[in-house]
Design goal:
By secondary structure, this protein is an alpha+beta fold. The chain contains six helices and 16 strands. Helix 1 crosses helix 2.
């Protein structure tokens, strides 16, 4: 659903997130910020920031996500691989195939339902009713480390680290083809695909800046094992960026090959390492997870195929 919202003289000078919270029914300021962060709010065809000061006659296009009706959020006893936990936050190693939060087609059985069971009432509310505790997301078919906040103080502190890039996320992936350089940076804006709203694309239209750094870990016959560090956190960023340079993620049937490869029918992408400043103690925390079985199985196939 798309809305067009025009600012009046009375709105002039307000922050965009506050303006949207007042203008869209049943929308909190944090929910408005999420819409903006997701690139769903544009002005004259360009994405804008939450801090933008609204001017009279500004007309904003707002793409509202599909509503999850009767989500029935409930605690569910779903096993969690907990890497770290204290009274402020929890870091879990999400398996491939687990949806992070309720969405159309996935009202239950998500990581949020599992966190509600594990953490009880101690999850932050900053992310909204459908995303309690969720500070950042990873795709359903991406495995690896994810932080959830147990209170609003921790959530805001960690969200600020995402914005100022002091929270670091490192992924490992296998891509098709042999990347020429040993390391590099992909700096290309990402926005909604112009014709397929479920996909993202490198585009100048309705986009936000996106930067991914990569380095080669190993080379195989027709494939490359990469380490990727996110400087920004756009939807599907690593997958879109690597496809953009001609090296789509192995198994990615959305942005890469349209058929399974080496036994994979979903992306070979793992959130391997995360570094952040603890919101309460201000100590630096660095956590790492092992590569999952599906990933190591592919590496073994590639080693055998390449004669290693």
């Amino acid at each position: 659903m798309n809305l067009l919202i025009k600012a009046t003289l009375e709105d002039a000078g307000a922050r965009l997130d506050s303006f949207l919270a007042r203008s869209i029914e049943n929308t909190s300021r944090s929910a408005a910020q999420q819409l903006i962060d997701d690139g769903r709010v544009t002005l004259r065809g360009k994405a804008v920031k939450s801090s933008y000061k609204v001017a009279e006659d500004d007309e904003f296009s707002v793409e509202l996500p599909e509503v999850v009706e009767d989500a029935g959020l409930e605690a569910q006893d779903i096993p969690l691989d907990v890497i770290y936990e204290d009274s402020d936050l929890i870091v879990v190693n999400k398996p491939k195939g687990l949806v992070v939060h309720p969405a159309p087609g996935h009202a239950n059985g998500t990581l949020v339902n599992a966190l509600m069971y594990h953490c009880g009432d101690s999850l932050s509310g900053v992310g909204g009713e459908l995303r309690p505790g969720i500070v950042h997301r990873i795709d359903m078919e991406t495995s690896g480390l994810l932080i959830a906040a147990k209170n609003d103080f921790a959530h805001r502190h960690l969200s600020d680290q995402l914005k100022d890039r002091s929270l670091s996320r490192v992924y490992e992936t296998i891509v098709r083809g042999n990347i020429k350089d040993e390391s590099g940076t992909i700096d290309a804006p990402i926005g909604r695909h112009p014709t397929d709203r479920k996909r993202m694309a490198v585009t100048q239209r309705n986009s936000r800046n996106a930067v991914t750094h990569y380095e080669v870990i190993a080379r195989y016959d027709g494939y490359t094992h990469l380490r990727c560090r996110l400087e920004t956190g756009r939807t599907h960023q690593i997958r879109v960026h690597l496809a953009h340079i001609g090296h789509p993620v192995l198994g990615d049937m959305v942005y890469g090959m349209k058929k399974p490869e080496l036994g994979l029918d979903s992306q070979c992408l793992h959130a391997r390492r995360i570094k952040f400043i603890h919101p309460r103690t201000e100590e630096h925390v660095e956590l790492e997870s092992d590569l999952p079985e599906y990933f190591t199985a592919v590496l073994e196939k590639l080693k055998a195929k390449s004669g290693y």
